[in-house]
Amino acid sequence: MVRAFLTDLDGCAIDAADPKGIRAGQALAMLRARGWAVGIVTSRTAAEVAQLWSLWDLRPPAVVESGGALLLGDLPDGALRSRAMPTAFGPVVPLGAAADDLWESMRDAVEARADVRRFRQLSDAELSEVLGLPTEDLARARDRRWSEPLVVGGPRESRTLLGAEFERLGLHAADGGKLLHVLRGSDKGRGAAELLTALGSAPGAAGSVGVGDAPGDVSFLQIVASAFVIRAEGKPHFPAMLAALPRAHLVAEPGSAGWRRVVAALAAAAD
Ligand SMILES: [Mg+2]
User: Fold this and answer.
1) Looking at domain 99-183, which of 3.40.640.10, 3.20.20.60, 3.30.980.20, 3.40.50.720 is its CATH number?
2) How many whole angstroms from 197 Cα to the centroid of ligand 1?
3) I need a labelling partner for 57 at 20 to 30 A (CA). Which of 43, 158, 165, 166 fits?
4) CA of residue 174 to ligand 1 center, whole Å
5) Are strands 69-71 and 62-64 parallel, antiparallel or unpaired?
């Protein structure tokens, strides 16, 4: 049985208590040393993941931009290489529509609403505030090629309604907590399915584990054998996740502390 660990980054492995993800990298290295296959499933860009790789001295494969593409990292050579395109961050397999093409199919729905703004329209100051990133990290966060994140104003229900409208247009909208990530032709679940297979596991296979914190993670947590849900400091777990994942383990300790506790428990169980 292949033990495969897939994890979201923001709000799980990385948060205000470990903003650079240094402890996250140490935890993933330890898990690998115990025989786990490790993969990332994130809304971050390939450029941002490559930055983490250099910090970690570790190159786990990553579903990036909420499922828009798969960054192969140090996956062994296999079938995916033939579908990959070269980038500055190594081979990448596109899974969803390219950003320009995607924008054309969602433009009318977005421009009809005053409470929705495109991620790429935000100033550096606004983006820094939304993402909680220092300005020197923003260029990497802006380097999006397969997804279109939106800032949706008003109550959380506004995102749900807009998401439903996108679904009718044949698009996928995933609520990442801070942003609504829109894609066409893929989502985190599709990306995670490819990633699990590439790691020698399979969707739903025994030994597959996933960790996420926001509704946008549901599609990938539904295809692992054991799902763990992290909550933010001072907040409950997302109700929408509990409804969609009735068998998930709810981690009591918030944020990256809870995430590290899950990783430590998996590593201990592997001994
Ligand atoms: Mg998250």
Assistant:
1) 3.30.980.20
2) 23
3) 43
4) 11
5) antiparallel
